[in-house]
Every structure is written in C-alpha cells, then in structure tokens.
Specification:
Blueprint lengths: L12 H5 L8 E4 L10 E4 L13 E5 L8 H5 L1 H7 L4 E4 L10 H9 L4 E3 L6 H23 L4 H8 L4 H12 L3 E5 L4 E5 L5 H4 L4 H10 L1 E8 L2 E9 L9 H38 L5 H10 L7 E11 L5 H21 L3 E7 L2 E7 L6 H12 L2 H4 L3 E7 L3 E2 H20 L5 E3 L6 H4 L4 H13 L8 H15 L4 H8 L3 H15 L6 H17 L11
Parallel strand pairs: 2-3, 3-4, 4-5, 13-15
Antiparallel strand pairs: 1-5, 6-7, 6-9, 8-9, 10-12, 10-13, 10-14, 11-12
C-alpha cells in the first residue's frame, strides 16, 4: 500500500492491535504490513459495501450479506485491495463460521492485514476505541504542528463550541465575526457591541449577507484541508490582530470543527449507509432491518418523506460565495425542519443528496407542503450562487414505504431537472408522474389503484355498478337528473351510490382536483381492461 504523508498523524494497524479492545484478536495474514496507516473505520454488512469504502479505512464486518455467495466471497479481498483498504477485521462466528483459507491467502497476496475478531466483541466498542485513538492523534498533531495560543487551546479542550470561539475572537478584535464551518455545515455569527446599531432590525440571513459584504475573509485551512472561512467585519473601530495571532486563531478553529465532525461523523455515516441499503438493496427480512434501524436511533415505522436534491454552482460566482451559500442552504434546511418538529437526515451521494424527513404523528401534510414551497421560493434570492433542484415524495410508513418514497422523489426530481422550477412535489405532479417515470406502466397501475382502490376488482358486479355511476357523474358534470335518466336508476339510489363512492375512495366529488384525479384514473382503467368488462348499464 502506498504511504502518504497526509496520514502520518493517523495510527497504523500495529497501534490498533495494542488497544485493549483488540488485544484478543488473531492476525491471520499481512503481518508484514501492520504499518499501514488508517484514516477511519467503516462498518459494512451490505451487499454493495464497495460503494461506501474510502482509501486507508479499516473495514469491520461479519460478512452477513455475502456469506452465502461464493463468488462475492472470492472477490471480497481483491475488491478491498482495489479500494486501498488498510486492513479488514472479520467476525466470522455467526455467519462464516470460519474464514476460508483462500481469503487468508488473498489477503497475504494483496498485502492486507486480515484480523479475526472473537465472538464476544462488540462493533460499537471497536468503533469507539478506534475513533478515540484517531481523535487523540489528531489533537496531538495539530498541537505539534500549530503553535496555538494557550488560552485558545484551553477554550477548545474545555469543550467550547463555535459560538464561544466567535465571541472570543470578537472580543479580541473588537469586530463582528462570522465563522463558516463547511465541514459540518454550520455558520456562527457574533455581532460586536460597536456594530449593534448597524445590524439592528436585520434577520439572521440579512446579518450574514451584510457581514460578508463588509468583511475581510480568511481561509480556515491546514495544508490542503479546507475547514471553512473566518469573516472579520472591517469597520474602522476593529483592531485587527497581528499576523501571528491571526495565524494561531485560524489554526485553532479546526480543532473544534474536527471534534464536532468526529462526534457525528461515525454515527451519521453508519445511518447513511443503512438508509442507502434500505433504498437500494433487496430487503429480505424487514423485522431484522427494523431492529438494525432502532440500534441506529432510526424508526422505519414512522412516516417519512424522501427528497432528492442537487445543487450546482452557477456561472459567474466566486467559489467562496458558492461554498458559503451551500453551507448556509443546508444549515437553513436543517433548522427549518427541526423548528417544525421534523427530524432530518441528509445522505450525501455521488450525484447529490437524499434527504429523509421523519414526520411527527398527526402531521398536517398539506400545510407542510405549503411551508416547503414557500421555503423553495427563497432559493433564487438567498442562494443565488446555486442552481437547486429538489424532488419530494409523499409521506409513507415502513421500509416498503421508504422505497416507494424514493421512487416518487426520483420522478419529482426528474420533473424539476427538466423545468425551470426548483421544487416539484410528487403529490402535485398530475400527469407529469407518468411522463418522468422510468416505468410508466407501473406508474399508471399505481395511479389507478391509489384513486379507484378496491373498485378495480371488476369481478364484483357491485364495483362495476359504482364505477359506471362515477363515470356517468363525471360525464354529466354532476347533474343528478341526467345521471338518473342515463342509468335508468332512481334519484335517491344515485345519491346513495355517490356517497358510497366518496367514502370508499376517500374523495370529495365537490372538489375539482378530486374529480380530475378520478376522471383520469377511470380513463386509464378503461384502457387497461377488455371492453366487455364494462357492459352497458341500460336495460
């Protein structure tokens, strides 16, 4: 494995094997390559594990998803080698029973340390121990490479967050301060006492824009790693720090950003992988997947809305402005939904983002749609550097519901990408859901079933009678006299049938939108059955 200087601050495999949690492991192969450095830990038991691997990670797995697939097992170690994995830790006892000899030989061939885990070890204990060791070394490296002012360092070590750091910098400089953390998608603003009148009455959004426009911008960066931007408002009262102290500040802020990232990265990464697994892989045992979800603090039983989003940089905008708008966008998206009592998880993919919204019980979905549409209307003015496209599903419960939501979100997203509109909600697509679906026949069938429900069972004469009554109602614009005459049926009977139809289909025939949906569903249903299925209702 290629050694690179960037990973000198990370532990190697030999260091990990000295940790108490791993001292009962058995090294089966790769004893000459224990100096491989690691950048992180990846827990994966999904069939598509290779999609989520990053170079220089260690992989901890039970091989659950591939233990019955000989081809997948035989290609497992070569795949890890292509992904430049530093080592693999396998807990074989529950599924593999025993690590195959050919896997051990492959690990030796590809210079990958292969470690067998004992049956009583917990993956969470490994994750914590490895993450703590990486974090410990990060802190040591940053303290060694950067001559951080003692006071600043103590503030970080004592657990101060970004708001406290911004307040301290504002006190030192006499300037208003904005810190943009692009690694964690946060912005923190501290207005100095000198600038209170300047920013009085402004919203947080207006404050940040005005502060950016009048600030000196400093990159928060160590070597090639960008952590964010520090904005120091440039009014005459501001007493700017000398270059050395400013350097110390810019080298200290990454400590807090790295710590915050480390706290959430592992859990978020595992949850993101699990959600991608649910939405991409074939689910065999929903009960088992539900248990895994609960262990990650995620309930699949709740109602979820799935959104697909992509944001691209518009031509003519500076990279710094674009990154700030992107960070601001995600910060505001999270704040918007959290303030509404809606949990949100963002999964980053190669092509964009999957956003999972977990709705509280009795959520008014119609009002939620209006709030989201109002928020989307702010995109052009608040995030002008970005071209944003979003597709939103309907709420669905359970694992199958989440999969259905992903499909609906994709259709709405395709509609957005082919129009000038930033947001499309699946529930509002109408016939566009057929146009932008990759499987129109399936979508038509779903649409018919959603609107006509059990009436599609035309083996029941009663259903044919109700369908014919509904069709006649729509054709005659609700004129009960004409309907009665055309069907040769008493007025009261027609009224009773219409009430029955509305109850069965959960529709209001007095609403134009419901009538349109039913009319379209009926026309499509007619086209999918034989003409003899609808005999004439006349005597």
């Amino acid at each position: 494995m290629t050694k690179i200087n960037e990973y000198i601050s990370y532990p190697n495999i030999a260091d990990l094997l000295q940790l108490p949690v791993l001292n009962s492991c058995t090294l089966l192969a790769g004893e000459k390559y224990l100096d491989n450095h690691i950048s992180g830990i990846n827990l994966s038991d999904t069939p598509e594990y290779q999609l989520w691997l990053q170079p220089y990670e260690i992989l901890v797995t039970s091989c659950f998803s591939i233990h019955q697939d000989k081809q997948a097992l035989s290609s497992f170690i070569p795949t890890l080698a292509r992904k430049e994995i530093s080592a693999v830790f396998i807990k074989p006892h529950q599924y593999l029973r025993q690590i195959p000899d050919y896997m051990i030989a492959q690990a030796q061939q590809f210079h990958i340390p292969l470690i067998e885990l004992p049956p009583n070890i917990r993956f969470s204990a490994i994750t914590k121990a490895v993450s703590d060791e990486i974090m410990r070394r990060h802190t040591l490296t940053l303290n060694n490479v950067i001559s951080v002012n003692r006071v600043l360092t103590e503030i970080i070590i004592n657990g101060a967050g970004l708001p406290e750091i911004a307040r301290m910098i504002s006190n030192l400089t006499g300037s208003s301060v904005l810190i943009s953390d692009i690694m964690n998608g946060r912005q923190v603003c501290q207005i100095s006492s000198f600038d209170e009148k300047t920013f009085l009455g402004m919203t947080w959004q207006e404050q940040t824009e005005a502060l950016m426009a009048g600030s000196h911008i400093h990159n928060i960066q160590i070597d090639d790693t960008m952590f964010g931007y520090l904005y120091l408002y440039g009014n005459e009262h501001a007493s700017y720090l000398d270059a050395e102290i400013l350097k110390q500040i810019l080298h200290t802020i990454p400590l807090e950003i790295t710590r915050e990232h480390s706290i959430h990265a592992t859990l978020n990464n595992h949850l993101s992988q699990f959600i991608l697994h649910l939405l991409s892989d074939q689910i065999i045992d929903e009960a088992w997947e539900s248990t895994r979800a609960q262990q990650l603090g995620f309930s699949v039983k709740d109602a979820h809305i799935i959104a697909l989003m992509k944001e691209d940089q518009r031509p003519g905008y500076d990279d710094n402005i674009c990154e700030f708008h992107r960070s601001l966008l995600f910060n505001n998206i999270k704040s918007h939904f959290l303030h509404a009592g809606i949990k949100i998880h963002v999964v980053n993919t190669d092509t964009g983002h999957i956003i999972v919204l977990t709705l509280p019980p009795k959520q008014n979905v119609a009002n939620l749609y209006k709030q989201i549409e109002a928020f989307a209307r702010t995109f052009p003015s608040n995030y002008a550097a970005l071209e944003i496209k979003i597709g939103l599903s309907r709420p669905h419960e359970g694992i199958s519901g989440m999969i259905q939501g992903r499909r609906e979100a994709d259709i709405a997203f395709q509609a957005s990408c082919h129009s000038k509109q930033d947001l499309f909600i699946f529930d509002h697509l109408g016939i566009l859901r057929f146009i932008y679906s990759d499987n129109p026949e399936y979508e038509v069938s779903n649409f018919i079933q959603e609107n006509l429900k059990g009436l599609t069972d035309i083996s029941q004469p009663r259903n044919i009678e109700l369908l014919r009554t509904l069709e006649c109602y729509l054709d005659n614009q609700g004129n009960l006299k004409r309907i009665s005459e055309e069907l040769y049926t008493h007025y009261n009977t027609i009224t009773y049938r219409l009430k029955t139809i509305q109850k069965l289909l959960d529709k209001d025939l007095h609403k134009s939108s419901d009538r349109f949906q039913l009319n379209l569903a009926l026309r499509l249903f007619h086209s999918t059955v034989h003409p003899e299925a609808f005999p004439s209702s006349s005597p």
